[in-house]
Amino acid sequence: MTRELHAVLGCIHVPYHDKGATRAVLAALRRQKPDVIHLLGDVADCYTISMYNKDPARKFLLVDEARQVTTFLDRARDAVPGARFEFYEGNHEDRLRRYIWAKCPELAKLPGLDTRGIYGLTERNIGFHDYRSPVRIGQLWLHHGEAIRKYAGWTARAAMLKTGGNVMVAHSHRQGYAPQTTWEHTLQGWEIGCLCRLDPEYIIGRPDWQQGFALLRLGREAQFGVDLVRAVRGKCWIGGEEYKP
């Protein structure tokens, strides 16, 4: 039976990504050779245009962040040169639209002044999906996510019930699985985890986050299987095999 292997990564938050975890995941992808890589939102942090209070010690310009994002995209491409890449906007990439609409609406719709343009997605042959457009692959919906619930799996469950179908989201920075069976069918939801640092300035103590990503295997008649892969201390394991930088 023909199968496609998809890797789903999200909440990387470049330039505030965990370099060890990110390198371990790229090492795993280099060996696994997925057919498609889905970047499920918040690849970029867009810290400099956040509406929240910012640490004045962080002196990045948006152009600096953009350069680091494109460096990450190029390294991911180098790791899996034969893969198709799909980039999904998250709420952090959507900060650019919100900033323009709030501060300088005259620049709205200016060619190139958007997520696709500043990260060179067209030039890099990377597919693009805006924040308001979930994507369906067979029997599974992919979307960055909207609201966050309190515990792991609850965000996926909320998205699953809203969608009325199987769904995979990022956004919560957690890993979780939420199935629901009725007399008619079973629905499933997944949260894929994050690859950002685990010491954000706005949380006291250690956040309830888990680093990792998901592997999605698509089979005949839109059947699929999902494996959540944890990344711990700069290493990850798939089928008992260790991957590290």
Describe the overall structure.
By secondary structure, this protein is α/β, with parallel strands linked by helices. It has one domain: Purple Acid Phosphatase, chain A, domain 2 (4-Layer Sandwich), CATH 3.60.21. 22% of the residues lie in helices and 27% in strands. The protein has an 8-stranded mixed β-sheet. It has a 5-stranded mixed β-sheet with strand order 5-6-7-9-8, with helices on one face. Helix 5 links the parallel strand 6 and strand 7. The two termini are 33 Å apart.
SSE blueprint and pairings:
Layout (H helix, E strand, L loop, with lengths): L3 E6 L9 H14 L3 E4 L22 H18 L4 E5 L6 H9 L11 H4 L7 E4 L5 E3 L2 E3 L11 H10 L2 E4 L5 E7 L4 E7 L19 E7 L5 E9 L2 E4 L2 E3 L2
Parallel strand pairs: 1-2, 2-3, 3-4, 6-7, 7-9
Antiparallel strand pairs: 1-10, 5-6, 8-9, 10-11, 11-12, 12-13
Radius of gyration: 18 Å
* Series of H and E elements: EHEHEHHEEEHEEEEEEE
Strand tally is 13
- How many domains? 1
Average pLDDT, all residues: 92
| CATH homologous superfamily classification | Metallo-dependent phosphatases
Amount of helix: 10-25%
- Biggest sheet overview: 8 strands, mixed
Question: What's the quick description here?
Answer:
The protein is α/β, with parallel strands linked by helices.
